[in-house]
């Protein structure tokens, strides 16, 4: 019984860590788009391991879609 409870605690800790980590990445991406003067339409994760996203956003009425990779410490690498 102890092993089951211990496993559940470890699993919940891992889920909480990933939730807050991914939430931080989402905020960094949204802030970067806001600083460009745009609004985020959609953020779609395409790779959890490499933290790569497809970001669709609108600036001055024109919709853009770019691939972005989170490099850590608030650093984003944008691809065209």
Structural class: alpha+beta
Order of the strands making up the biggest sheet: 1-2-3-4
- Through-space gap between termini: 52 Å
Classify the helix fraction into a percent range: 40-55%
- Over all CA atoms, what is the radius of gyration? 16 Å
Outline the low-pLDDT stretches. none
The general outline is: elongated
Multimeric organization: single chain
Determine the number of helices (DSSP H or I, runs of at least 4 residues). Answer: 1
Walk me through the structure.
This protein is α+β, with helices and mostly antiparallel strands and 80 residues long. 42% of the residues lie in helices and 42% in strands. The chain has 1 helix and 4 strands. The protein has one helix at residues 2-35; strands spanning 38-47, 52-59, 62-72, 75-79. The chain has a 4-stranded antiparallel sheet, with helices on one face. β2 and β3 (62-72) form a beta hairpin. The mean pLDDT is 87.
In short:
Helix content is 42%, strand content 42%.
Question: Which short descriptors sum up this protein?
Answer:
80 residues; four-stranded antiparallel sheet; 1 helix
Explain the layout of strands and helices.
Elements (H helix, E strand, L loop, with lengths): L1 H34 L2 E10 L4 E8 L2 E11 L2 E5 L1
Antiparallel strand pairs: 1-2, 2-3, 3-4
